Amino acid sequence: MPVNTQQFENESYLNLETYRKNNYPIVTPVWFILKDNDIFVVTKEKTGKVKRLKNNNVVRVAPCNYRGASKGTWVTGTAHFVDSQETSDILKMRGKKYGIKAKIASLLSIRKGNYVVIAVQV
């Protein structure tokens, strides 16, 4: 695994920094999956991070705790949305990694639309 993703291997959360149209950074702690040296974040289509990524695909990521306190080095990358076939694979991997917490989160965010998977390449 490249040096850039090694710090994420045994972590549950990462800070995802996305940017508003005026380049103001917004940092959000999120769950993630590592697969083939890419970082995948599952979210819903009506969230702010999806809107911001449609305008600017440059991101920064760093491992963190559940409150967003950084635990590692920030790494710059680019993000894109993955296709529906890969989305189902990532959702299964997220279910394995986070278990019952992922099911509860799905129920709590049901009004935010369908799932979207963001791939971050660092």
Key attributes of the depicted protein:
Pnp Oxidase, Chain A; 122 residues; alpha+beta
Report on the structure:
This protein has 122 residues and is α+β, with helices and mostly antiparallel strands. It contains 4 helices and 7 strands. The chain is globular, with a radius of gyration of 13 Å. The longest helix is centred in the C-terminal third of the chain and has 15 residues, at 84-98. The chain has a 7-stranded antiparallel beta sheet with strand order 2-1-5-6-7-4-3, with helices on both faces. The chain has one domain (3-121): Pnp Oxidase, Chain A. 30% of the residues lie in helices and 37% in strands.
CATH architecture: Roll
The CATH superfamily is Electron Transport, Fmn-binding Protein, Chain A
Structural class: alpha+beta
CATH level 1 name = Mainly Beta
How would you describe the shape? Answer: globular
Strands, total number: 7
Which stretches are poorly predicted, pLDDT < 50 over at least 5 residues? Answer: none
| Distance, first to last CA | 12 Å
- Helical amount: 25-40%
The number of helical elements comes to 4
Radius of gyration (Å):
13 Å
Number of domains: 1
**CATH topology tier name:** Pnp Oxidase, Chain A
Summarize the structure in short.
The chain is α+β, with helices and mostly antiparallel strands and 122 residues long. 30% of the residues lie in helices and 37% in strands. The protein has one domain: Electron Transport, Fmn-binding Protein, Chain A (Pnp Oxidase, Chain A, Roll).
